[in-house]
Amino acid sequence: MAQEPITKVSIIVSKGSLEGVYPALIMANGARAEGISADLFFTFFGLDAIHRRRYEHVKVATVGNPGLHVATLAGGLPGMSSVMTHYMERKMEKLDIPAIPEFLEMIADSGAGLYACKASCDLFDIGREDLVDQVKDIITVGEFYALAAGAQIVFT
């Protein structure tokens, strides 16, 4: 039996760390490159990726991150997050992976929708003026579900 191709994805971004944001951006960009409709829903700390004052300062989470293969104690040392973030940014730059601001612009320009979670915005006192221009709207979970109808939902 032939499987139906994926035509639409909705990606939920709930983590505000570099390793939490980039998978969503890469997946959305890849979807759009394949002609797949894509929407991103930023909630909780994922809002940092679309917050005007924070999106250029998203860092690698070093404490309790088993993927780094660094002891939790070492991950908590002052400056460790900045050092690891700088290291990852250099590696991504060599691979021509864009910085978050540029990536958001590329994805939005490709037709993907970027949305902020209303409940999270209310929780953190974030208004439309705090978000980057590429964000289409601040929407409720119910509005997101309506938007995501028929889509493959991906959590990052």
Topology overview:
Layout lengths: L7 E6 L4 H16 L3 E6 L29 H4 L4 H15 L5 H10 L3 E5 H6 L13 E3 L1 H8 L3 E4 L1
Parallel strand pairs: 1-2, 1-5, 2-3, 3-4
Helix pairs in contact: 1-4
The biggest sheet amounts to:
5 strands, parallel
- Give the CATH topology: Hypothetical Protein Ychn, Chain: A
Number of helices: 6
Judged by helices, strands and strand pairing, the structural class is alpha/beta
Number of domains: 1
Order of helices and strands: EHEHHHEHEHE
Number of strands: 5
In which order are the strands of the major sheet placed?
A: 4-3-2-1-5
Q: Please give the CATH architecture.
A: 3-Layer(aba) Sandwich
Beta-strand share of residues: 15-25%
Helix content: 25-40%
| Whole-number mean pLDDT | 92
How far do the termini sit from each other? 30 Å
- What low-confidence regions span 5 or more consecutive residues with pLDDT below 50? none
